[in-house]
Write a structure and sequence with these properties.
The chain is mainly α. It has one domain: Globin-like (Orthogonal Bundle), CATH 1.10.490. About 75% of the residues lie in helices and about 0% in strands. Helix 4 packs across helix 6 and helix 5 runs antiparallel to helix 6. The radius of gyration is 19 Å and the shape is globular.
């Protein structure tokens, strides 16, 4: 029931939520690539994610749906030249804006029962946090495929680079890495 209620709220407020998101993107120092999108395209991308969330909520909130949608975004965005941190921050901002809206408009949820607040929080966290995970996975898979196709590394070198904990701090040459953290 809460899922349908939440979907209805987002549906009713999608334009204002998306507009707020686009404004935050334009102001952020972390969003170079997104800021270069024209206003209509930027709005469309935020709106599409909220529309996907509405659909996901109305259809039963399946994690399989989250995986397919966000995995595809990760692949698409790397092809467009976006950094992974920028994509993840864009999703984070969508979550913050929705959370802020719900926090300041508590009366929109029919019951003030605290269990509803926990359920809403769990639903939002599930969608956005798994979204970030699957975007990262799709992005990484495409990145690793590109590296492999480049033939600049052997399969063994790729395994070493990609495997868990492959780079020990003392083995990493910090001058070779450029980190732009958000």
């Amino acid at each position: 029931m809460i899922s349908n209620e939440l979907a209805a709220i987002i549906k009713n407020e999608i334009n204002s939520l998306t507009k707020k998101w686009a404004e935050e993107i334009k102001k952020s120092d972390y969003m170079d690539r997104y800021r270069n999108l024209d206003n209509d395209e930027l709005f469309h991308r935020g709106e599409t994610l909220y529309l996907n969330m509405i659909s996901w909520l109305e259809e039963g909130a399946s994690n399989v749906e989250i995986e397919g949608y966000f995995h595809g975004i990760g692949i698409e965005r790397i092809k467009e030249g976006f950094s992974l941190t920028e994509i993840n921050y864009a999703i984070y901002l969508l979550k913050v804006i929705l959370n802020d809206y719900l926090a300041t408009n508590k009366e929109l949820i029919s019951s003030t029962d605290s269990s509803n607040a926990f359920e809403i929080n769990a639903i939002l966290n599930n969608y956005f946090d798994l979204g970030i995970f699957f975007v990262t996975r799709g992005y990484s898979q495409e990145l690793f495929s590109r590296i492999e196709r480049s033939n600049k590394f052997s399969k063994e070198e790729l395994k070493q680079i990609i495997s868990k904990s492959a780079l020990e701090e003392e083995d990493a040459d910090s001058e070779e890495f450029v980190w732009r953290h958000v």
